[in-house]
Protein 1
Amino acid sequence: AVTPLGRAAAASDFVSGLATFLDFRSRASINPDVSLHLLREPADEWIGLDASYQMHTDGIAQTRAFMFDQNGHMGTVLTSAMATILEPPI
């Protein structure tokens, strides 16, 4: 069985992908880190994420998400990202 802490950790791994609005035909992005800060464990199996994404013109980005459940806010997730322009196919 997955523990409440395990569910929160698994949900935090989706944050970078939820908030990234890149055209993946021309750009690629990796997130080298994920930082999860919990105030408490989830109350049940449902976890919500409210994510936002900011990217500088040099391709360095940061994603932040507020994590919540039926009882309200329970934590924050931060990720870094590096984006690059893909070379056109030959």
Protein 2
Amino acid sequence: MTEPGLPELGFAGPVAESFAPFAEQGLVPGRVVVGHTRLLRVRTEEGEALAEIAGSLRHRDRGPEGRPAVGDWVALRPS
């Protein structure tokens, strides 16, 4: 069975258009499929990847509601 790509996960239309400023910065889109306190499993066009929540976001952390959650779109810096 083939894993769904970003369009099948909803990365189209307004969602894709709103990502343009991040793409200009060299970031890539991803959708959170599993979330933990510091790490996320994210679906990208290349497949699934582990991503660490940025330090600036962790320092502003106000609990689980302030972190990316399953289903959220995130901007990733490619490794």
Protein 3
Amino acid sequence: FATVGLVGAVIQGGLIGRLRARFGEARLAAFGTGSAALGIGLIPVAPTYAWFFLPVALMAAGSALTMPSRAA
């Protein structure tokens, strides 16, 4: 949960405005959805507990990119 919260706070708190201006909402939503899906798909194949955090961070980043794009 800490990983998801930290990644989400960094993206939504500091990066989303610049990313939205540069890439547009539609691209961000598409990329975020793909990243979240890829992260979710990779969670079951993480070989160790330490490797588990990489797909979780990918999923969190994708979710953070997608949610503000839908709300705007």
Protein 4
Amino acid sequence: PPYDLLAQQSLVVVMSPTGRELRRIALTAPGTALGYLRNLHVDANGNVWHLAFDPRGATLTRYR
């Protein structure tokens, strides 16, 4: 307050070894309280795994 929340978004920023931003991945904003609990994982190959929850269930998405 006094500002309205217009949008909620989670971002993954992919950086080069020198610290330059390479790209951004926009993720689905958490729909439930469960969405804030360890919903991201980066594996040894650099894949980003995102676990999103909504009232209908869960979705696991891999970003390369």
